[in-house]
Specification:
The chain is α+β, with helices and mostly antiparallel strands. It contains two helices and 16 strands. The protein is elongated, with a radius of gyration of 24 Å.
């Protein structure tokens, strides 16, 4: 909805400014006998807002977009209240609102942290880690908490108890070129099974493995390529107001692995 409003506002202010410059300004000057005449208020606002709206539209639609992490499904990588920058051009340039890809730049890699539109409700954005690529067979043993991709177990090593939650274990996992930490709950088994990823789709999982609504569940399932928004790159702010009372300064500026 915001993207649509931004596009319409940019188009409207641009049209007002262009029509005035090409037609109405000359008519006003002719009626005033060549003397200076004040511009209508609507034209003044259009000239002021169009450059700003256009810049925001270009940045947000094709380069970077800010998002706020609303849950703990990506702990320990991302915390609730993290504000992140999402790289929107890394997987190709898309038209705003229509979401049609116009320039193909690259594809997600296994281990990327990705923002995508929820398949069952595209108005909602989710953020998870890419586990399965098109054509992959992914198996998750919910009791051993072990990922297997195309018959090969994904390397994972228990580090120890989670710092903030003794009921969970911190483990280091290696997905493709990405080494990252995951949380595993003691004495609780989340969803598991075997999943074959269709062409043009991706299998996503949260790093908080036993507390993540992801591709193991039918409302998420396999994520189509055209629902991808971009790759999460860096944390630029963290603030869970009023719970924390202020930003967690140590998280600001962290890259997302």
């Amino acid at each position: 909805m915001f993207a649509l409003i931004l596009v319409l506002a940019t188009f409207l202010t641009g049209i007002i400014w262009a029509l005035d410059a090409l037609i109405f300004k000359r008519l006003r000057l002719a009626r005033a006998g060549g003397n200076a005449v004040r511009e209508p208020v609507v034209v003044e606002y259009a000239k002021s807002f169009f450059p700003v709206l256009f810049l925001v539209l270009v940045l947000r639609s094709f380069l970077f977009e800010p998002f706020r992490i609303p849950s703990e499904s990506m702990l320990p990588t991302l915390h609730e209240g993290d504000f992140i920058f999402v790289n929107k051009f890394v997987y190709g340039l898309r038209l705003p609102v229509l979401n049609t890809k116009v320039v193909d730049i690259g594809e997600p890699e296994r281990g990327d942290v990705v923002v995508f539109r929820l398949p069952s409700d595209p108005s909602i954005n989710y953020i998870k880690r890419v586990v399965g690529l098109p054509g992959d067979t992914v198996h998750y043993d919910r009791h051993r908490k072990q990922l297997t991709i195309n018959g090969e177990e994904v390397p994972i090593e228990i580090v120890g108890p989670a710092e903030d939650d003794p009921d969970k274990l911190l483990a280091e996992e290696e997905l493709g070129e990405h080494k990252h930490y995951v949380l595993l709950a003691r004495g609780f088994a989340s969803e598991g099974g075997t999943y074959t990823v269709p062409e043009g789709h991706y299998f996503m999982m949260g790093d908080n493995r036993d507390n993540s609504r992801d591709s193991r569940f039918p409302e998420v399932a396999f994520v189509p390529e055209y629902h991808l928004v971009g790759r999460a790159e860096r944390i630029w702010m963290n603030w869970r107001w009023p719970r924390d009372g202020g930003p967690q300064w140590s998280r600001i500026g962290k890259s997302i692995e």
